[in-house]
Structures are given as C-alpha cells and as structure tokens.
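queue> pop job 88
queue> type: inverse folding (structure -> sequence)
queue> payload:
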C-alpha cells in the first residue's frame, strides 16, 4: 500500500489524484464486512488491472453487491484496505475523485430530471458542460446507441427501462472514469443494444481503464471478460483467465456443485392436450389483433425487440392494461379488465420488476406469501396466524426459499430468494394460466434453474404458461413454442426444432422492424406535449382565472374595478410569497407547516422592533432581526428534519406549535403599532397594482429560471426526485436541503412584510391560515407531492386563483362554507386535469415510486 499522511483526526490527507503508473486500477485486500451476525465478506482479495474487463460472478447473496459498495466507498470496511489506482480510498466522495463510477443494476436516474440534466448533474464541476451546451453534449453521449431515439429533453421517468439503462451507462462513461463498475448491465438492455454495450466496453478498456463486469449471464461473461472471479458465501473461490474455463465449469463453481442442466425437459406431447388459453383479436395500447392458443402442459414464449408490445400483451391479460378482444380459459369466455377479474378467472402474474410490483418491502416473508389469499385463513373476520404460518412454511420448503424463517423481513432475503417468494405466491395456488414476465431477471444461475423447474412443474400440472423474456437463449431453452411479436402483432410461430436461439434471433431481427416507441405509447399532439410539462398547470390555471373573471364581471360590474383588483392583488402578494416558500420545500420532497405561524410571528416581532418611534437605522436593524428570526426557524426545521431525521411534516408541526405559542406569549391580544412609514413603503402602488405584487411576479420568473438553469436549482429538483440517487451522484444533500429550508424562510419574510402592511399591529393569529392556503396554491400549481417537480409561476397563479375565488364568493353573496367548497371543488378539478394529462400507467408509475424520505422518515445527514 502507498504511504499516507495522517491528519489530526486520523483521516488520510494524501493527494486524491490517481497514480498513472499504478499496477492495479482497483485492489481490495482481505476485505471483511459483517451485518450483525451475518458475515457478508470473509477476507476477500480482488485485483483488477488497467486495460482489462474483470468479471465478478456468484449467486445472489454471495457478496458481489457488498464488495462493489465497499469498492465505491458507499460502505465502510470492517477490516481490509481499498486502493484505487494506487491510492488508499476511505469514502464515496474520494472514490469518485479517484475515478471510479458505478452503473447500478436498477438505473439510478433522477426521474423528474431530463436525460441531459441527469448526465450533467453527475459530472464533476470542472468537466460539466454549460447549460446551453448540455443538450447537444448529452445527445452526442448517447448517439452511438440509438441516434435520435432517446431525446436529451425527455424526462428520465418517461423512458422505457431499456432506454433508462442506456442513459445510466452513458452517464458513467462520459465521466471517463479510471474504473467502471457495471452491475448487471444487460438486465434492462434490449438485444439490439448488446453489441453497442460490448463495443463501448472494449473501446473503454483500450484507453487504459478497467471494467468490473457483474452478471448472472455466463455466456455474456465469457464473451466480454478477460478475467473472472467467482464469489460464493462471501469468499473468493477462484480467479482465472476467461479463456481457461468453460461455461459449465463457471456454473458449477458458482453453485458449489455440479449442475446437470439449466433448463428442464420440454413437453413433447403437449400438442395433443386440450386448449387452456385462447386469445382472439386482443388489442390495446401497443398491440393489436393478437390471437393465439396455449395447451395444457405448454410453455409458450413471446419474443421480440424491446418495445414491440410483447410485455403489454402479458400485462393486458393480467388486467394491468386496457384491452379489447376475446379471452377464453378452458373454453369459457372470461374478463381480464382488472387485476382482480384476471386473478379470479385463473390467471397468475409474475411481474418483471419485483421491487416495484411484487415485493411488499415492509412485510415479512409470511405476509408476502399470503397477502393475496388471506380469506383462506380467516375465521369470523380474524386471520388464523397458525394456519397462515403453516402454509407459508410449506411454500418455503416447496420452493426452497433460503430464509431465517417465515417471520423474517422480505428485505433480509437475497434477490434470488425474494424472487422465489414472488414465484411461490403465484404458483402456489391452482391457476389455469401463468403469465411470467422475465421471471428470472436479476437472479443467479442456481435460482434461475429452480424457477425454470417451478414453471415447468406448473405447466405439467395441467396449466398453461405464457413467458416473456429479453433473453432469446432463455426462451429457446425453456419454451415449447415461441411467438415472435413485431409492431404489436404476432408475425411468426416457432415450434419443434425451430425453437433455437439462432432461429429466434433471425426471426426477430428480420421481422417487419421495430415500431416507433411513440407509436407504442400513443403519439401526443403538440398541445398534449405542452400541457404535460410545467406549462400545463399554468395554462389550466390561466384559463380558470379568465373564466372566473368573466363570471365575476357578469355578476357585478365592480368585480373588475381598479379598487377590487387592488384589494385582490394586495392579498395576492402575501400568499404568493408564502406559496413560493412552500414550493421550495415541496420541491425537495417535504412540507413546511410552519410557514403560516412564521408569518404571524414576524408580524408580532415587528410590533416590537419596527415601532413608530424608531429612526431609519433602527428600522434597518429591526428588518435584520425579522430576517434573522425567519432564517433561524428555517435552520431549526433543517436540524430536525436532516441531522435528527424527523419527518419534515412532524418537524415543521413542532415549529408551527412553538411559533404560535411564542406569538401568543408575546402578544396575547393584538397590540403594538408598527411603523407607518415602513407600511407606506411596503404598500406602494403603481396605479392599482401594489409594487410587492410586481416583485412577486418578477421573483417567480427569476426563481423558475434558477430552478431550470442553475446548479443549485438542478440539485434541489434532484434531491426531491430521488434523495438516494442524488447522494450517489455526489450531490451534498444536507446542504441542498439546508438551502431549501432557508430559502422557504427567506420567501416567507416577504409574505410577512405584506401581512404587516395589512394588519399594522402585532396580531398573534394573523398568519395561521397561510399554511393551508400555501399548500393549496402549490397543489393547484400542479407540483408533485413526491418532490422533484414544481414551478414558482404555477404556485403564484394558484395563489391568485384562491383569492379570486374568495372575492367571487363575496360578490355572489356566498357564505364562508360555500367559499371553501368552491375552492375545494376547483382543486379537485385541477388535480383531475393534471392526472388526465398522464396515462394511467404513468400515474401508477409515479405512485410506485418510493415516498419522499424527507416527508416520511427524515433525510439523515
């Protein structure tokens, strides 16, 4: 190991620049890591040379992910050392500076950012392109893969999984790292992208960099790797040159035992069996006029280039996509319009993405196995836990699930065993049709072999299996027949000796070509695209404001008078600043309940520090006290939510209560005249328009530009989009969250000043209503409650609409209850309109995203 200079706190202060002459690009020596009683790594040594592709293979739970997390600094070692290009590494930030980049198995993209923004935010500051040049730069970075198909302007969440994988890999390569770690890079990569991936890897190592390639697909490992290391049970079992061993030897080393065959024997006599599933003229979003039959005992595969409709067909039969056509099970016409109907009519569905659609992460193994069949264990409305546990234990034994027990959290299992829980839940019941979408994605060769066996056993038990896979070799080995799908239609049927990988590849690639991805999802008109973006809520709110204005003008000629507009705009300025402050916190995934009481507290404080008897310099000091108090509240909110990990809603509820209590303590009753000269300055107008209303509009425009085009704006949206991913790409999330809380408090100061001009005395209850009103304004503005997406202009328009509604209610002589109902109805209409701009699948995708950590569990530090 190279020598180190150790600072006062024992931290290495050696240069963080990688050594060009280092013998190893990455060297881990005798690395040990335990999680409680579980020893994940037991003295692992791994040496990766520059200019080579070094594959790391092993079963799920063998320690591969833990080893790579240690290599990239995301986990600290218990014992052992980590060196990157000859320099000892102790943290994730140092690892990035030394030149290591990790491509995660599940693309670690910020869903609410564009492709260009995802690539740009991951770059080191000295290599980051300007905002103007970023789209062209991002386009060049991904052009070798699919020129013109992946737009740099597209939101990451709107991309299909294979395109997200392309962006994730491109994001790592453009950083030009010395060590590139690829964790299952082909799990979400389509067949047509594989040659580009391998070409990119070979070109990359020619420049002297090193690639660590983690995969369960042994054929790929043999093709791309120079050296292979096999991990099993947290230990290195062997390291050898790739050309020295066969695929069979690698598989045996991984499993720790000889494996006779990967695929179970096919059912050669299925053609004589009765038909179980018959589909006629099935059509839906991305497929049309699909007809086929599957007989008892058969496994039929759907093959095609990714995005040609094969997965949509499967999801339609599972009731997850709308469809039309005839579906019959064992000769009986059935409905598959909903997941409940599909399940009731004999379908079992194994989804591709177990984390998003299958595994209930907060529940135990037992609960995951029985959640769909609780009525079987219910007696008089109560679940018989003993029967439920007994059934779960039977499933664990039958499907060979490795777990500490049925009460163990599902998250404690390896990926392969989690998948076996999903398979057991689907196959453990008597189902006529099994729909399996890449059922072995992300699992090791041993678990894959077992899952293949379970599917074949299910078919032999008089069921029909419809299987979709992106791996043509897998389809050839498992399926009795293969249906080739192109442009949403079945264009070929392969059976007998035709079910072979070369034939499947040829038929898929020589089909009528891949349909345009936009066609699969339904083309949007230019107006539809406009409404879907941040402009959509602004347009809807603008229309609503105009319509209400017309209604108000027809009800009374005074509604649009200068005096009434002046009154609305005066109130608008206060609420607009509060709404923009709320928007900042909601942008990072939180909610600030303290905004209203803070405005009231500033009014009370002003009654002490901004009195009539004070001279100019004293007023400036008083204004400084208001700003300092507001920023202090923002700092307290941050301390509670970030270092102390209190969910933001609870943290700001604490400050809500504290501020209200202090206000009442200082001014039990309204009192204390606030400086009239200051109030006059704040209330300055240009015609009927208050100057502060103009300031609010200008500030909203400026802040939206900041959010869209600056580093801090991108970081705020990134943290709200995905806190975990933001950390991985090197964003200082605690500082970014501090900026959000302090920014919200600073904007609240402006709102407080407007409230001071309206109230004029210290009233402890003055600002309470602004908390709920600010949240309503932001929701009306179309901001995402998940964080990551929002607009200051839209929040401002939402604030104006609220005050217009209140004014209209007054002119229509409606009481307070009607005002609230009218505002609530408009809010529901607005939210419904925004949801309608997205397809149901897009909406569900957002619902499946993890809840904002800042809102639910605190952000940590």
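queue> result:
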């Amino acid at each position: 190991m190279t020598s180190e200079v150790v600072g006062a706190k024992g931290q290495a202060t050696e240069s963080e620049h990688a050594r060009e002459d280092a013998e190893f690009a990455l060297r881990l020596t005798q690395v040990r890591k335990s999680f409680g009683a579980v020893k994940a790594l037991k003295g692992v040594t791994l040496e990766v040379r520059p200019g080579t592709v070094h594959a790391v293979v092993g079963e799920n739970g063998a320690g591969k992910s833990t080893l790579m997390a240690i290599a990239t600094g995301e986990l600290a070692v218990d014992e052992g050392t980590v060196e990157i290009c000859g320099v000892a590494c102790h943290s994730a930030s140092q690892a990035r500076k030394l030149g290591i980049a990790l491509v995660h198995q599940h693309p670690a993209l910020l869903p609410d950012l564009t492709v260009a923004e995802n690539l740009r935010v991951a770059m080191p500051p000295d290599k980051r392109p300007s905002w103007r040049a970023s789209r062209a730069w991002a386009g060049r970075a991904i052009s070798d893969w699919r020129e013109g198909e992946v737009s740099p302007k597209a939101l990451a969440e709107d991309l299909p999984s294979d395109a997200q994988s392309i962006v994730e890999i491109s994001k790592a390569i453009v950083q030009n790292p010395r060590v590139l770690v690829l964790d299952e890079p082909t799990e979400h990569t389509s067949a047509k992208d594989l040659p580009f991936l391998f070409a990119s890897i070979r070109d990359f190592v020619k420049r002297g960099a090193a690639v660590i390639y983690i995969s369960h697909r042994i054929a790929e490992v043999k093709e791309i790797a120079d050296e292979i290391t096999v991990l099993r049970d947290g230990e290195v079992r062997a390291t050898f040159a790739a050309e020295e061993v066969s695929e069979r030897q690698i598989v045996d080393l991984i499993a720790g035992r000889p494996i006779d065959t990967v695929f179970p024997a096919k059912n050669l006599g299925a053609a004589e069996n009765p038909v179980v599933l018959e589909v006629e003229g099935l059509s839906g979003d991305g497929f049309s006029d699909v007809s086929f039959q599957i007989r008892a005992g058969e496994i039929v595969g759907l093959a095609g280039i990714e995005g040609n409709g094969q997965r949509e067909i499967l999801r339609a039969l599972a009731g997850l996509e709308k469809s039309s056509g005839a579906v019959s099970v064992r000769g009986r016409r059935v409905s598959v319009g909903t997941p409940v109907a599909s399940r009731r009519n004999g379908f079992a569905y194994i989804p591709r993405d177990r984390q998003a659609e299958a595994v209930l992460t907060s529940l135990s193994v037992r609960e995951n196995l029985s959640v769909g069949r609780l009525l079987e264990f219910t007696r008089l409305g109560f679940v018989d836990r003993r029967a439920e546990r007994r059934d779960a234990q039977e499933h664990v034994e039958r499907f060979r699930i490795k777990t500490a027990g049925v009460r163990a959290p599902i998250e404690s299992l390896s990926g392969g065993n989690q998948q076996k829980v999903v398979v057991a839940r689907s196959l453990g019941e008597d189902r006529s049709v099994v729909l399996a979408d890449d059922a072995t994605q992300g699992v090791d060769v041993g678990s894959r072999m077992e899952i293949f066996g379970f599917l074949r056993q299910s078919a032999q038990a008089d069921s029909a299996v419809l299987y979709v896979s992106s791996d043509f070799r897998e389809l050839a080995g498992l399926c009795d027949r293969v249906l080739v799908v192109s442009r949403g239609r079945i264009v070929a049927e392969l059976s007998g000796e035709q079910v072979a990988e070369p034939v499947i590849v040829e038929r898929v690639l020589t089909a009528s070509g891949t349909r345009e991805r936009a066609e699969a999802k339904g083309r949007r008109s230019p107006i539809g695209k406009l409404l879907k973006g941040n402009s959509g809520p602004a347009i809807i709110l603008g229309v609503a404001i105009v319509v209400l204005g017309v209604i108000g003008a027809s009800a009374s000629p005074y509604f649009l008078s200068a005096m009434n507009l002046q009154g609305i705009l005066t109130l608008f300025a206060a609420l607009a600043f509060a709404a923009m402050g709320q928007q900042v916190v909601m942008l990072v995934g939180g909610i600030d309940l303290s905004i209203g009481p803070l405005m009231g507290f500033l009014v009370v404080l002003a009654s002490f520090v901004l009195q009539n008897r004070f001279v100019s310099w004293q007023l400036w000091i008083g204004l400084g006290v208001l700003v300092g108090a507001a920023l202090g509240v923002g700092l307290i909110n941050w301390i509670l939510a970030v270092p102390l990990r209190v969910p933001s809603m609870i943290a700001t509820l604490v400050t809500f209560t504290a501020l209200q209590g202090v206000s009442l303590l200082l001014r039990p009753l309204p009192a204390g005249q606030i400086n009239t000269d200051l109030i006059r300055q704040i209330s300055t107008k240009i015609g009927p328009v208050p100057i502060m209303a103009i300031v609010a509009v200008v500030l909203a425009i400026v802040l939206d530009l900041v959010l869209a085009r600056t580093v801090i704006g991108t970081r705020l949206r990134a943290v709200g989009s995905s806190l975990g991913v933001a950390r991985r790409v090197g964003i200082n999330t605690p500082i970014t969250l501090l900026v959000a809380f302090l920014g919200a408090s600073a904007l609240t100061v402006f709102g407080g000043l407007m409230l001071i001009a309206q109230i004029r005395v210290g009233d402890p209850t003055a600002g309470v209503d602004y908390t709920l009103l600010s949240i309503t304004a932001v929701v009306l503005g179309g901001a995402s409650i998940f964080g990551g997406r929002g607009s200051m202009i839209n929040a401002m328009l939402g604030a104006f609409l609220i005050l217009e509604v209140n004014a209209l209610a007054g002119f229509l002589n409606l009481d307070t209850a009607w005002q609230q109902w009218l505002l609530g109805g408009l809010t529901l209409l607005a939210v419904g309109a925004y949801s309608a701009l997205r397809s149901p699948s897009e909406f569900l995708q957002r619902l499946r995203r993890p809840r904002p950590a800042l809102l639910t569990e605190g952000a940590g530090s």
